Structures are given as C-alpha cells and as structure tokens.
C-alpha cells in the first residue's frame, strides 16, 4: 500500500490512479481531482481536501476523521460506513451520494447539500452543526440527530422513519404535492370560476 503521509498533492489529477488502501493521512489534496477513484479503506485522517472533486468516488469504510473537505464536490460518491467524525464539510455537495451507516459525529456540515435522493440510512449526525444544510428528499431512515444543531435545515420530503432527535426538537411534516395533482386542482378551480 502506498504511503503519502503528509504529502503535498495540491491540484493533482489522480482520477485514473490506483490508490486503494493507501495512507493519505494529513495529506494536502486541496483542489485535487479524485473523481471515480476507488478510495475504499483509505486513511485520509486529518487530510486537507478543500475544494477537491470526488464525484462518483468510492470512499466506503475510509477514515476521514478530522479531514477538511469544505466546498468538496462529492456528487454520487459512496461513503458507506466511512468515518467522518470531526471532519469539516462546510458547503460540500453530496447530491445523490450514499452514506449508509456513516459516522458524521461532530462533523461541520453547515450549508452542505444532501439532495437528489442522497441515502444516509443509519448514519449518525450526533452533535454535528448542520445549520442551513439541505437534506431535501434525502433517505434518513434510522439516522441519529441527537445533539445536532438543525437550525434552518431543509428536511422537506425527507424519509425520517425511526430517526432519533432530541426531545425538544419538533419536526413539522411537509406534504409533497406532485405536479399532476397541482395541475388538476388548478383546472378544477378554473372550471368552477366558469360555472359561477
């Protein structure tokens, strides 16, 4: 396994590389292109991935504890059972990403996007600041939000079955109206106006 401990790999394009199981602990990967890479079981603890692209990358069971991933593009990335405890993912894009049973305890997720049906079933957001994060239409079955800061978080249309929240948190249910229903209602309103 390759050892890139504390290596400086800023703005490097590694998208066709073989680095599965590598040690990238505390590496500087700012702005790096890691799109589509198999990074499963890779040690990225404390690494700096600010502005990096990991679109479609496989980070299953990777160690990303205390990593700085602010502004990362991680659409369709796989982070199943990865450890991101204490990581910073401020304004990261995780559209359509998979984070099954991922550890996001104490992770900074302010303004992050988990849209496009992102799957986070069984993930833990314990004590994580999620202010302004968008989890619209996300799969959040059995997710643990205990102690998390959910101020201004968009949970509209999210699946929250068996999710755990603090006792004082109240989730207001929002109804999703599909376009066909909306069009039908408007048509009925117009017909009623004609009759009157």
The count of strands amounts to: 0
Quaternary state of this entry equals single chain
The portion of residues forming beta strands comes to under 5%
The largest sheet is: none
By secondary-structure content and strand pairing, the structural class works out as little secondary structure
Provide the helix percentage: under 10%
Uncertain segments: 172-187
Q: How many H/I helices?
A: 1
Radius of gyration: 20 Å
What is the first-to-last residue Cα distance?
77 Å
Q: Name the average pLDDT.
A: 88
| Helix and strand sequence | H
Shape: globular
Could you describe the 3D structure shown?
The protein has one helix at 179-195. The protein is globular. It is low in regular secondary structure and 196 residues long. It contains one helix and no strands.
Which key phrases capture this entry?
196 residues, little secondary structure
Write the layout of secondary structure elements.
Blueprint: H1 179-195
Summarize the structure.
The protein has 1 helix and no strands. It has one helix at 179-195.
